Amino acid sequence: MQKAVKNKTPSGARFLAGVAAGALLSITAAAHAQPAASGASGTVARGRVTAMPVAPAVPAAPVPPMPQSASIPHGASAPERGLPAMPVPMPAQPAPGASAASAAEEASAASAASAASAASAASEAQAPEVPLPPEPPEPNVAQRTGMPPAGAYAMRQIFAKEVDRRLDVPAADQQAYGRLLQRSLDEDGHGDLADEFVVMVDRSANVQAVFVYFRAKPGDAWSMIGAAPVSTGRPGSYDHFVTPAGVFQHVPGNMDFRAEGTLNEFNIRGYGARDMRIYDFGWADGERGWGKGGKSPMRFQMHATDPEKLEPLLGMRHSKGCVRIPSTLNAFFDHHGILDAQYEARAAEGESMWVLKATRKTTPWAGHYLVVVDTGRKARPAWSPGPGKAVRQHIPAGADMVD
């Protein structure tokens, strides 16, 4: 008879069994921990890890590039800015109670529209800055000292000498525009403005002109110093706004900057020749010139343009919403500080106004405001001719895609 013996396991076998059990526990723990560690979701069934599909991460909206032709000196402190005439995306929200199928259709349409405008996506902003509140206007030298206005009226001769693209506006129209300027200032709460220069633009498609006005005292009639052709916003294309109308204060909070004079992808100097000044009026509500219209925030500026390719087109709507002016008018505004009352006040307080040139000769009657109106004229006045047929036939490619 065979003896019954106790079933014993050798110590080496017990060691191997322990290692195997530990490995199994580690694998099971790792399977449960994997979803939390990797960001994926999954289930564990009968010892198997079943991965669940994960929605792809939504790519971040592209950050708009700085304008290629803008210049800020090294060491200067200037705020980041959006591109001029830059729309802010305003995604549509589904109506309350909309069905899932309707929402899916809207999402599909939005995706298609996004793909169609991918080439223009870089010009869109993620969100606008908060518009600056109006600043209390600082008095200019003439307003502080009671200087006689003869020098201000003498600016007519300087304008005629320094600005090479001028408009000869008849006296009757000068007076009519002066009355329109006064109405605009009245509506904006500046009806008593006097003893400073004011710049006004008529954005009407049949006018496209800029005027400089002055009066010595409230209640006086406004007197025209000079006028020149401009180009304002041309609706009809994506990212093109109708130039906003209203009264715009020129303040250092929306710091101006200067053009580098570099060529863009269309071989065009969008801001004009090097050192031209870009007058920045900050964010404004602009009427969209594409799609279903409506309004969006846009960056509103006044600046020169390519002297060879685009200056001959002044006198017709052609910008993305900003006001294009002749280069010599830009230099006139800059050198004489026609709109620099607030900038000069900050400089006098010791602030660094780097955009102001050391060689400037700021007028004692420096102003604060740009006024944009729309006369809606049905016919083109003889004193404001548009570009000729020969010029229109040679518009360069991409000319309407610059600022």
UniProtKB/TrEMBL annotation:
Question: Quick one: where's region Disordered?
Answer: 65-103, 119-148, 381-403
Q: Which domain of life is it from?
A: Bacteria
Hydrolase listed as a keyword: no
- Compositional bias (Pro residues) at which positions? 130-139
What keywords are annotated for this sequence in UniProt?
A: Signal
InterPro entries, sorted = LD_TPept_cat_dom (IPR005490)
Molecular function, one GO term? transferase activity
| Low complexity bias spans | 119-129
User: Where is the secretion signal located?
Assistant: 1-33
Q: What is this protein called?
A: ErfK/YbiS/YcfS/YnhG family protein
Q: What's the source species for this entry?
A: Caballeronia catudaia
